[in-house]
Write a structure and sequence with these properties.
Helices cover about 20% and strands about 40% of the residues. The chain has three helices and 13 strands; from the N terminus they run βββαββββββββββαα. Helix 1 (about 35-45) crosses helix 2 (about 145-160) and helix 2 (about 145-160) runs antiparallel to helix 3 (about 165-175). By secondary structure, it is an alpha+beta fold. Strands 1, 2, 3, 4, 5, 8, 9, 10 and 13 form a nine-stranded mixed beta sheet that branches. A two-stranded antiparallel ribbon has the order 6-7. Strands 11-12 form a two-stranded antiparallel sheet.
Length: about 180
């Protein structure tokens, strides 16, 4: 992460993918090859969510809010390993920026495929702590579904609601 701290508007440049999942800004992070862009492709092409930024996420802070956007000239483009740079399919009007509400960190490795997801208590960006969930990817998992479910779980827990769906399927979807 690269940070600049201008007096009134601090900024950072992060490596990751920013998507809007039902108006929840989800920053997907992880090492190269961990599945960030593949998850984003599934989220936007199959599940109808919106791509905000891929690979380079520019973050600014206004008050207590973090706003993420894509690098200029990269709007609507998605770099998917083995396929190259694609024009991201959008089923909804393009959005250029999004509040960041949640970080989902992907970790690769078949040896960790069956471990629980972990909410590691948060991650700080520009002095603001955001909730962060770690998901393990062993290439047999549907990352788009896992990320979407984690975002829905974040919203319901934040509202003090634990839906029947999430209670019933939490173990199956998030634990492999």
């Amino acid at each position: 992460m690269t940070e600049t701290t201008a007096s009134s508007n601090p900024k950072a440049v992060l490596h990751g993918v920013l998507v809007s999942i039902n108006r929840v800004g989800v920053l997907i992070t992880g090492e190269p090859g961990s599945g960030k862009s593949e998850a984003a492709l599934g989220l936007i092409a199959i599940h109808g969510h919106r791509l905000i930024a891929d690979d380079v996420v520019e973050v600014s802070r206004t008050g207590d809010v973090l706003i993420g956007s894509g690098a200029s000239g990269m709007e609507g483009l998605l770099h998917v390993r083995d396929l190259g740079i694609l024009s991201a399919p959008q089923t909804a009007p393009a959005v250029r920026e999004q509040c960041i509400d949640l970080i989902i960190h992907l970790e690769a490795g078949p040896n960790r495929c069956h471990e629980d997801d972990t909410d590691d208590g948060g991650h700080e960006i520009l002095g603001k702590s955001l909730p962060r969930i770690v998901l393990y990817n062993c290439r047999t998992r549907n990352l788009a579904l896992l990320v979407e479910t984690a975002a829905a779980r974040f919203v319901t827990k934040g509202n003090g609601i634990e839906s029947d769906f999430l209670r019933k399927y939490d173990g199956d979807l998030l634990h492999g």
